[in-house]
Amino acid sequence: MRNRFFTFVAVGIALLAAMPRGSSAVPSPIAALPIADRVVVHKGERRMVLMKRDQVLREYRVALGLSPIGQKERTGDFRTPEGRYFLTRRNTRSDFFLSIQVSYPNASDVERARRNGWDPGGSIMVHGLPNELKRTPEYYERTDWTDGCIAVSNSDMVEIWLLTPENIPIDILP
Predict the structure, then answer these.
(1) What is the pLDDT of residues 113-162, one digit of tens each?
(2) Is residue 157 part of a domain?
(3) What average pLDDT is seen over the chain?
(4) Of 167, 137, 169, 171, residue with least CA distance to 154
(5) How far apart (Å, rounded) are the C-alpha atoms in residues 131 and 83?
(6) Quick one: which of 68, 119, 128, 139 has its CA closest to 100?
(7) 76 Cα distance to chain centroid
(8) Whether this model's pTM surpasses 0.85
């Protein structure tokens, strides 16, 4: 129930942030938020950076797939992809506290999987914690626990939601 409340609050804030700039209904702190133009994930450092031009706007600690080293190649390999993708569809009704889809697989991912006779997989997201925790909060903070997604704390997810526009590039580096 508590996560649903925070989801409701986060969605309300996101809707306010999506209103046209200059609208009198938008509170000035939300209207003044800096909007990123690129997201960079450094897998080896478990770090996500929101960038505007060449300046770092925000940094976050991330959790990755259960088998984080190397490029995602197929369904069930528990790897987080590497390469240039885009953040596309936003989901407020996810099994996790908010989620934004990563455009994996791209054309080269599909081709590589096809050559090997594999299903490349999909449904890679940037998301918060599960709505129904199966482990302690400390586990999620210190462990790579996803099936290949990029996970952040719920409060970080609210910021990412607010500071990233649709179709922003995300570079996922080793």
Answers:
(1) 999 999 999 999 999 999 999 999 999 999 999 999 999 999 999 999 99
(2) yes
(3) 88
(4) 137
(5) 29
(6) 128
(7) 19
(8) no
Write out the residue range of the structural domain in which residue 168 sits: 35-173
Do strands 125-127 and 150-151 pair parallel, antiparallel, or not at all (unpaired)?
Answer: parallel
Alpha carbons 79 and 33: distance in angstroms, whole number: 33
- State pLDDT tens for residues 5-23: 455 455 555 554 454 555 4
How far apart, in Å, are the Cα atoms of 75 and each of 79, 142, 147?
9, 24, 9
CATH number of the structural domain spanning residue 61: 2.40.440.10
Show Cβ contacts of residue 152 under 8 Å, excluding neighbours closer than 6 positions: 48, 60, 61, 62, 63, 126, 127, 128, 160
Q: Is 142 in a helix, a strand, or coil?
A: helix
Which residue is listed with tokens 């999620």?
140
